[in-house]
């Protein structure tokens, strides 16, 4: 059955529009720039803001988690600076004295967590919303992935853009390889179902993991970084050995929903996954990757949003945001819902627990604000 003349004309118009739309954006690449918002980027000893403060009442350099964690109760501070919703927030590695956020206003921002809690730097260079960010181990550089199909590498301190990586597909998640000797490699899960590994030094794709049947939403390194786990719109969870492009494990059953947010527990044993049927599912992160049926956390409403979740550093609690702007805290042992409170006017997209503090968490929302709770 051939399309009628009218339909044919309509089709041609749509196709012409599509081709045109693609061209316009490619012509003008945006130049990257960065704005420093503080006067004293270096203190009297010449140390930059990346230097870990020692006057905050808690040892940010310790390797031990706090002995006992408590449920956060009161609002301490609100950071506002994003003009649109926030899509991801990340702690500065190990010390967590700084906070990196990215949002739908195309910006990435770096914030102080202690003292005056100012916005330190804004990184501009994406033409569309920024979807994900990831620090390297030292925190000296970070990656940002945007809907403009670019992954950019930034110098945290100077704000310079050090590289740009694109395979013309939208990167939904980016992760540096956490191994110290592989910090020049990063993986990106893309809209065309692939996981792509880039070498920063050569700006070349060095490996492609192409087995998912839908866009790849998360990548999580497990098992001392020898393997990583990916989740996708195809509702499956796949486990990969690093640098081997065939999945070693494929987990899917008809009852599973897609899981657009995954967090590894601090002890490295469990993967907690935000499932689209309003549950948090827990899989073992070692060898078998079995679903732990005893641990399912419910009561919140994620309704199709990729609300990320986190553990308290001592593993007593698990926290998550939801589509209603609330923060939920469950007891990890019993899976009982301990506390919930309203944090944002719109979706609460991310909640992260401070690795050195007993009860400090930061929540981020689509209302453009981030809030510190204690």
Automatic annotation (TrEMBL):
Residues 1-13 have a biased composition (Acidic residues). InterPro entries: PRPF17 (IPR032847), WD40/YVTN_repeat-like_dom_sf (IPR015943), WD40_PAC1 (IPR020472), WD40_repeat_CS (IPR019775), WD40_repeat_dom_sf (IPR036322), WD40_rpt (IPR001680). Gene3D superfamilies: YVTN repeat-like/Quinoprotein amine dehydrogenase. GO terms for cellular component: catalytic step 2 spliceosome. GO terms for molecular function: mRNA binding. Keywords: mRNA processing, mRNA splicing, Nucleus, Repeat, Spliceosome, WD repeat. The keyword Nucleus applies. GO terms for biological process: mRNA splicing, via spliceosome. PROSITE patterns: WD_REPEATS_1 (PS00678), WD_REPEATS_2 (PS50082), WD_REPEATS_REGION (PS50294). It is found in: Nucleus. WD repeats lie at residues 79-113, 123-164, 174-208, 209-241, 308-340, 341-374. Residues 1-27 are annotated as: Disordered. It holds the Pfam family WD40. This is Pre-mRNA-processing factor 17. It comes from Caerostris darwini. The gene is CDC40.
């Amino acid at each position: 059955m051939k399309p009628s003349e009218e339909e044919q004309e309509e089709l041609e118009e749509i196709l012409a529009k599509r081709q045109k739309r693609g061209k316009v954006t490619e012509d003008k690449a945006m130049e990257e720039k960065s704005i420093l918002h503080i006067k004293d980027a270096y203190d009297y000893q010449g140390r930059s803001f990346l230097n870990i403060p020692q006057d905050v009442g808690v040892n940010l350099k310790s390797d031990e988690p706090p002995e006992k964690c408590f449920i956060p109760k009161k609002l301490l501070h609100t950071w506002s600076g994003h003009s649109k919703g926030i899509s991801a927030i990340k702690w500065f590695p190990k010390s967590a004295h700084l906070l990196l956020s990215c949002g739908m206003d195309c910006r990435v921002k770096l914030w102080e967590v202690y003292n005056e809690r100012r916005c330190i730097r804004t990184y501009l260079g994406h033409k569309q919303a920024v979807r994900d960010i990831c620090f390297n181990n030292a925190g000296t550089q970070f990656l940002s992935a945007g809907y403009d199909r670019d992954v950019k590498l930034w110098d945290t301190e100077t704000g310079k853009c050090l590289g740009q990586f694109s395979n013309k597909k939208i990167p939904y998640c980016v992760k540096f390889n956490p191994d110290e000797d592989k910090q020049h490699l990063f993986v990106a899960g893309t809209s065309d179902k692939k996981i792509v590994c880039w070498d920063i030094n050569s700006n070349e794709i060095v490996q492609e993991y192409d087995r998912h049947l839908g866009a790849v939403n998360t990548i999580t390194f497990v098992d001392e970084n020898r393997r990583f786990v990916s989740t996708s719109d195809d509702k499956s969870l796949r486990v990969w050995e690093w640098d081997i492009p065939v999945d070693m494990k494929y987990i899917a059953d008809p009852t599973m929903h897609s899981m657009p947010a995954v967090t590894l527990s601090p002890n490295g044993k469990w993967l907690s996954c935000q499932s689209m049927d309003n549950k948090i599912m827990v899989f073992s992160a070692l060898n078998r990757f079995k679903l732990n049926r005893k641990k399912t956390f419910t009561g919140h409403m994620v309704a199709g949003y990729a609300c990320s979740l986190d553990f308290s550093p001592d593993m007593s609690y698990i926290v998550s945001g939801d589509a209603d702007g609330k923060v939920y805290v469950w007891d990890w042992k019993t899976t009982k819902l301990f506390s919930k409170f309203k944090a944002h006017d719109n979706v609460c997209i991310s909640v992260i627990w401070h690795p050195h503090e007993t009860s400090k968490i930061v929540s981020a929302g689509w209302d453009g604000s981030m809030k510190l709770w204690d």
